[in-house]
Amino acid sequence: MPIICVDFLIFAEGLDASASEAAARSAVSRAYYGAFHHVTAWHGTLPQPGHDIGPKGGMHQVLLNQLQNPDLQCDPSLKRKSLGIGYALKELKGMRTAADYDLSCTQGKEEAANACAKARALLNRATP
How far apart are CA 102 and CA 114, in angstroms? Predict the structure, then answer.
């Protein structure tokens, strides 16, 4: 059965991040993916997609580049919104990268709660 973006965040918020570092890392990762999918859908509602100008990379980096380089057809308030969402998603992506790949850094309840809060704010902000 398919899921929706917020399901990732609900799962992340439901993990007991104080139970283990693995749970905290999983919460950070799932929170990011909930936000990523939601923001991807929001970006699809723009009059024109943003431009892939910036660092090269996979689909995550392309989305960040597009959000941070909105098309000229977007009105100024929508451009500002795209930029803000892009910078917030970039910060959350950095948190996810650390949780998933940097095993030398400690991830705990605070990091998980922070990622969930940032993801929740992105879901609320990235609305058509």
Answer: 17
pLDDT digits (tens, 9 = 90+) for 49-85: 999 999 999 999 999 999 999 999 899 999 999 999 9
**For 118, phi and psi rounded to 5 degrees?**
-65, -40
106, with CB counted inside 10 A (0-12, 13-18, 19+), is exposed
Neighbours of 53 (CB within 10 A): 9
User: In the chain, where are the structural domains located?
Assistant: 5-125
Find, among 115, 121, 68, the residue nearest to 94 by Cα: 115
- pTM comes to 0.94
DSSP for residue 46: S
Residue count of the chain: 128
